[in-house]
Amino acid sequence: MSLVTMKDLLDRAEGYAVGAFNASTPDMIPDILTAAEREQAPCILQVSWSALIFIGTAVFSALAPELARRVSTPVAIHLDHCTDIGQIEQAFGLGFTSVMIDASRLTLEENIRVTREVVRKAHARGISVEAELGRIGGTEDDVSSDVSTFTDPDEARWFVEQTGVDALAVAVGTAHGLYRGKPKLDFQRLRRLHEVSDAHLVLHGASGLPDEAVTEAVRCGVKKINVATELKLAWLEGVREVSGDDPRKVLGRARERVVEVVRAKIALMRGGT
Ligand code: G3H
Ligand code: ZN
């Protein structure tokens, strides 16, 4: 029914966060959307650049927008963690309604300059933009950081004013991939970031995050929550659960597992009020 921008989705999100789910195989595209349809929830279907190349740009751009339009709830299609403006410009023609420029490895001034340029180009096409300030630790498809640098609220306010970005990924103690110990989130900082920032806050690294931390993050004002690793693990477990020589049975179980995880995460992100 509706393919919308990320900003449209997040502007409407009162008292809940919208789940943003990474497709890393072609079959995950319909499965993430099926979960949104079954939960009757808005959702963000996202891919990293390397997942986009793996799936195939032609396959993705033919499949994702068409299937998203058939979902009865609003859906945005988002390019996750992109560090290259050239790739972002290619994504403009592939059906994305939202992009993330991740220039968090650069200095504040350079991050502002690069993000501002992406905002100018994307907004001219009606496409939303997410940026990152501070550094989220861990590894995610195309980005990796050994260090985690928490986002400073004063810098965040300045960054959003200077760039006009729609959504801001913040570093408050989450990390990409699975957690070794129990993650400790700085909720006070999150609340402060919500108070001072005109952009919607995004929480990355939700795989393995305890349910109560997700709920509290929603209470603190987070509007978009990213999940990738748990979908990959569920898919792999599903494959291993089925023996035999029928690819449809093996892949079928993997796909069911992905739908189950996405549905459970959506339900959790709704329960934050
Ligand atoms: O950008 C994607 C996410 O931040 C996902 O993180 O793999 O830890 O769920 P995750
Ligand atoms: Zn991320």
Characterize the structure shown.
This protein has 273 residues and is an alpha/beta fold. 48% of the residues lie in helices and 20% in strands. It is built from eleven helices and twelve strands. The chain has helices at 6-12, 28-39, 49-55, 57-70, 85-91, 108-123, 153-163, 187-196, 211-219, 229-241, 247-270, and strands at 2-3, 18-22, 43-47, 74-82, 98-101, 128-133, 137-140, 143-145, 167-170, 175-176, 200-203, 222-227. The strands form two sheets. An eight-stranded parallel β-barrel has the order 2-3-4-5-6-9-11-12, surrounded by eleven helices. The protein has a three-stranded mixed beta sheet with strand order 8-7-10, with no helix packed on it. Helix 7 (153-163) runs parallel beside helix 8 (187-196). The protein starts with a strand and ends with a helix. The mean pLDDT is 96. Bound molecules: glyceraldehyde-3-phosphate (G3H) and zinc ion.
Q: Could you tell me the radius of gyration in angstroms?
A: 17 Å
Secondary-structure-based class equals alpha/beta
Share of helix among residues? 40-55%
Overall mean confidence score, pLDDT: 96
Task: Give a short synopsis of this structure.
This protein is α/β, with parallel strands linked by helices and 273 residues long.
Set out the fold topology:
Layout: E1 2-3, H1 6-12, E2 18-22, H2 28-39, E3 43-47, H3 49-55, H4 57-70, E4 74-82, H5 85-91, E5 98-101, H6 108-123, E6 128-133, E7 137-140, E8 143-145, H7 153-163, E9 167-170, E10 175-176, H8 187-196, E11 200-203, H9 211-219, E12 222-227, H10 229-241, H11 247-270
Parallel strand pairs: 1-4, 2-3, 2-12, 3-4, 4-5, 5-6, 6-9, 7-10, 9-11, 11-12
Antiparallel strand pairs: 7-8
Helix pairs in contact: 2-11, 3-4, 6-7, 7-8, 10-11
